[in-house]
Amino acid sequence: MKNDIIISGVGGQGILSIAAVIGLAALENNLLMKQAEVHGMSQRGGDVYSHFRLSDKPVLSDLIPLGKADLIISVEPMESLRYLPWLSDLGWLVTNSNPYINIPEYPKVEEILKEIKKIKNNVIVDADSIARDAGSVRAGNIVILGAASPFIDMPFESIENAVRNLFRRKGDDIVEINLKALNAGRQFSRG
Amino acid sequence: MKKLLLLGDEAIAQAALDAGLSGMYAYPGTPSTEIMEYIQLSKTASEQNIHREWSANEKTAMEAALGMSYAGKRAMVAMKHVGLNVASDSFINSAITGVNGGLIVVSADDPSMHSSQNEQDSRFYGKFAFVPCFEPSNQQEAYDMVFDAFELSEKYRLPVLLRITTRLAHSRARVELVKHNLPEKKLKLPSDPLQFVLLPALARKKYRTLLSSYESMKYDARISKYNSFSDGTRRELGVITCGIAYNYLMENLNEVPVDLPVLKICVYPFPADLVKEITNRCHEILVLEEGYPVIEEGLRGILDSGIKIQGRLDGTVPREGELNPSIVAKALGLPVSYGRCVPGLVQMRPPSFCKGCGHADTFNALIDAIKPFGQGRVFSDIGCYTLAALPPFNAINSCVDMGASVTMAIGAADAGLFPSVAVVGDSTFTHSGMTGLLDAVSKNSPVTIIISDNLTTGMTGGQKSQATGRLEKICSGIGVETDHIRSIVPLRKNHEENVRIMKEEFEYKGVSVIISSRECIQTASKRKKAEAYE
User: Is A87's CB within 8 Å of B461's CB?
Assistant: First the structure.
């Protein structure tokens, strides 16, 4: 088993929480992993990404080779396109449809979505509104993780457990909202 | 066996705690910051009261760690690569004095300059100072090496350099911990009371000792378990690799099994004997190293002809920037896969000021205040506020090294530039700006120094700033006239007043300091969340 995942977004959008959930679930499943993160200057509203490599055999490189990623999980639509050189022919691209506009020349959203739809295996999810329905727009990142979960080779229950563990410290309400968000995202993806 | 999921930085911190560390010293700097942060959050560290406060800069951190070592205890000091420039005076001399308790100096290099001003390679410093250098290839090695580095440090009574790079520092993997932690060392003074006294006559003797032990360090590197040679059947090409580059090589050899002889070097000074094992076997050598061509240059120096050496110097590997598995595949002549091209509509998204950031309001006032004089008069420094170089601000003209804003403004004023303005962050000011301010006061330079004070060390994630609550006192203590230490609050509603105050101080023909204070909105929101949680 091998899952090479790129998680992308804009600094502050919670991509490290997505990575943390997958990491906890991987521990529960006794999988090996390496996860390269971006810290420092780019976290101030710049593009950020994480390379997440999951396997039942030892993972060698911390970075995914070009063309070898099985999955891109993006919290922002334009950012999902930035990592296409890494996506394999059969890879999936799961992205939020809601743009994060903090630059003057941000392209037209319809044009971005058109480019995303050129990828055969794509899922475009309106994570903001699904998260709002689940109880908080801030759970958008977990909606997207839910939508990507069918393409991660781990039992869904272990991802649910990881969400529980990660948010436990913040109280039962937050745990419930995020579990709802995760399930709604998964539901969306599976149709 | 206890296993944890740790960043490379965290693995080093955990290992230091498990190896009987008594003091951690550091100044925040990407990608090294998480080492100290991990120790600050550690329960063990707080129960054992292990020293874990931030230092004012890397030099004070290095010297305090040396003091801890003088007293016989194990100490670690961590910094980013350019921080080692700041600490280099004490680092290089600490190799001459030697140490008492084990001392590890961690330098985190940032090839490709993700968050830095250059991509210098700390391994040069190891060679420069004649000390052993460890370079882990993965998180587990980072953990294990700390134990060996402390031991080697105590064996040679020398500081040991631990060099990591961004991808290891900020990549997480499972790390297996030792079963039994080592206890802290007891306070024990050096047996020679003059060990740390570098009077020339004593220093000459010590330097000779250092040079002679460098030869045995090479032997230790040769037999180190982290340096290994695995032979292959192929003779056309052998690969020498070090640090994290080893993983990129193995990633490729795992995909396309090619039976190449591989020499892995992770402990320096690099062992010539081991190098000759592979160079004697192969017609060509490919050198893969993250950073500068340190080993490659060494090889080319040893072998003036006969064997072809490929690496960064002949263009087989790009001369600059970090490595990755695809670059290594290309260097090996293996096919390189590629997904799809990035569509043309995708725009760059550089970092920018957070919404509501106080630095932005400070620059908005400065832009209006300096407009009548024209552009090209603002020297700045290293921190989030360097983002003012980008549009729409275009407000600063320099960012060189910690504290350089103050002193460059002085030099430009000496040349006749008027007004000559420095913008420096609070933590950068106490790191290396205060001595420059003393220069300005001593000769009454006509400069205006704006301290953009966000009450934290912001860019590295909000570590405690030593300047907080002390800036007025520091400036008046250094000798700035109290009438010309002005405090402002960078808020849009104060804009007109702030512009007026800046203009007044530009006109003053002496040293002025404007302290523009408002809490970083990131740390403010973290603080409020933490308060609500309690």
Answer: no
